[in-house]
Amino acid sequence: xxxxxxxxxxxxxxxxxxxxxGSDGDSVVLERRTQKVQPPQMYQVVMLNDDYTxxxxxxxxxxxxxxxxREAATQIMLKIHLDGKGVCGVYSRDVAATKVDQVMEAAQxxxxxxxxxxxxxx
Length: 122
Ligand code: TYC
Description:
Elements: E1 43-48, H1 55-66, H2 70-83, E2 85-91, H3 93-110, E3 115-120
Antiparallel strand pairs: 1-2, 1-3
Helix pairs in contact: 1-2
The protein binds L-tyrosinamide.
L-tyrosinamide binds at residues 47-51, 53-55, 58, 77, 80-81, 114.
């Protein structure tokens, strides 16, 4: 008798994890997770009052860099003049930072001490 008995060829097997349909034939239940996605933090560009920058310069800057018409820019300038500060616009962080740079640059070029800052809303 031949001790090296041959088995009938069988189909190649794959590990359970590679079976079509996943797992080893049992159903798989994925845990449901609620997504916690927040809207991006927004930043307001706040302009500060001073005693030296001409009103006309402030109005032009607000028109130019914050896309306001002359009427709206004048209202914002007067609010800053009376209250000490005022919001010129609300933007994403990078856009707000760019607006601050542009205003500070324009003020410096013109020799005015106008200051503005960006701060997170709420
Ligand atoms: N207070 C300034 C003046 O009387 C005008 C001014 C307004 C300056 C707003 C700065 O952000 C400012 N000439």
